[in-house]
Amino acid sequence: MGLLDNTTQKAYYDGEQFGSYQFTSLDDIITQFQIAYVGESKIIPKVKRTDVAFHAMRAMQEFSFDTFKSVKSQEIVLPPSLKMILPHDYVNYTQVSWVDTKGIKHPIYPTKHTSNPFSILQEDDGSYDFPDDLQLVTDSSFDKTPLPIQWKKTSLNLNVKNEAVIGVNGLTAGAHTFNYTGGMKINSSNGSLEFSHTSVPTKRSNVTQTPDPLVDGIGVVYSGKILAAWHRIDVRDMEFLDFGATVNVAVSDTNQDAGEVVVAIQETPGQNNIRDRGTQYQENSPNFLSKNLKVKIQSLAYLEWGSAEAGTDTLKEKTLNVAQYDFLYFMITSRVQFQGAAGFANLTQGTSPTATPIKNLIKSVNCKNNVAPDTLQHRDPLGKDSSAWDSYKSSSNSTNDSYSYDQERNLHLNEGRRYGLSPEHAQENGSFYIDNLKGQINFSSTISGKTIILDYISDSLGTDEEMQVHKFAEEAMYKSILCDIMSTRQNVPEYAIRRYKQDKRASKRNAKLRLSNIKPNEIIQIFRNKSKQIK
């Protein structure tokens, strides 16, 4: 009975599970352990499968930290915020580096000379301040570019998307294309979060009209995009929450109705990709229901701006009881209901129609505790940065050199001081430190815009696909499960437990040697470096 189970080479190479034969699933490990060690006249007469599964998963975690090759990696382009969010299955890092244009990794070393502590609010005389207007959202006036990382948004962000117009009445499908330019950005000229909407003309199904519907709009849907931004807020120890916004809704014209904006407090975050299906009353759209934003129904409380407020800066506020909640979401949703062909140009065969985007502007938002808080600061882990971090990220030092840590000293006074310099500072690749409380890696300013690679360790229990054991360590897993189960049982002699522990250590050591993948020829090639003559 072969383990390949009649899997042909053709089936293997046509599939996607390449190299999987070197691993055994954790479920198989548990099953095989029960077959070999559990039963009448065996070491363990009786044990529940859930107990075996628990100890197997614990063994998998421990092996992942120092035995398995469980190093994962992520790559990002470091944004201007100089922050990288820790992966969702992160346990510890093995290396942080940036990559040059040739693909060579340059290691970045941690620094222990700075941090990002909580910043206590103080009055001018140094006394602690407990303000009653402490904002729970970052950059409530939208004066920072780009939108801070604490704000999440729909995936469409000032993208240009080519969309084909479906052919009707003899026109070829795809003969017309439309460049959808829309999304959201911070508009520094007027100090607002700007939502930009443009419609896309497409044909309704089962419509054959004369004259040409692409010209007069009969049977054509002018769809757009629903855009949203949201921010998690910490409402622990709060009873009432004041929230609101100042919004300037786009003025209606012959193309469509006026824009609509809804600001809401809800228990769940927004969706990354929200689309407007384009029907006249938005019945089928995931965030609309009977011409009303679905977010209104899902929210604890909401405010809305429409045609009545079009063209003017309008402030609206509301109070909500949040005593039973710990964390909520401040949600902004913007849409424009497109429903006509007027204003579109070049709606003829083989041309690209054009239209002017219509914009909703969020001038500012407010979301605050309406009673004086009894805490020194906002406790949200994604809250305000400290002055220490602001100074560190704005530093112009290109290296962590010797004089970077000598306060108020000039270069010409630094002669001879590099003798005995600590190697951790004698490098120019930049530095980082991990803010475990906020779950972020903070980098020095010299690495901004570079491609960052994080190599890290997980515990191999994140997904079912990860829960597999290399066959070099299979015996070590069995010995580890056996030792852990017997150590928790009554009436097991101490000498027997010591023997199980010795077997566990020995099998784990053998697994490490096997998985180290040492090849004699490679070692010999490295040792040949010793034969070089130094002249």
How does this structure look, described?
- With 535 residues, this protein is of the alpha+beta class.
- Strands 2-23-4-5-21-22-3 form a seven-stranded mixed beta sheet, with no helix packed on it. A six-stranded antiparallel beta sheet has the order 7-8-9-20-13-18, with no helix packed on it.
- The protein is built from nine helices and 24 strands.
- The protein has three domains: 22-68 and 471-528, no CATH class; 71-117 and 385-404 and 421-457, no CATH class; 151-369, no CATH class.
- The protein is globular and about 80 Å long.
- The model is unreliable at 157-175, 204-219, 275-292, 378-382 and 398-412 (pLDDT under 50).
List the keywords:
535 residues, alpha+beta, 7-stranded mixed beta sheet, 3 domains, 6-stranded antiparallel beta sheet, globular, 9 helices
Structural class, from secondary structure content?
A: alpha+beta
How widely separated are the two ends?
63 Å
In terms of DSSP E residues, the strand content is: 25-35%
Query: Strand sequence of the main sheet, in spatial order?
Result: 2-23-4-5-21-22-3
Which oligomeric state applies?
single chain
Helix content: 10-25%
Write down the overall geometry.
globular
Radius of gyration: 31 Å
Give the rounded overall mean pLDDT: 75
The counted number of beta strands is 24
* Domain module count: 3
- Helix tally? 9
Low-pLDDT runs of 5+ residues are 157-175, 204-219, 275-292, 378-382, 398-412
Q: Quick one: biggest sheet?
A: 7 strands, mixed
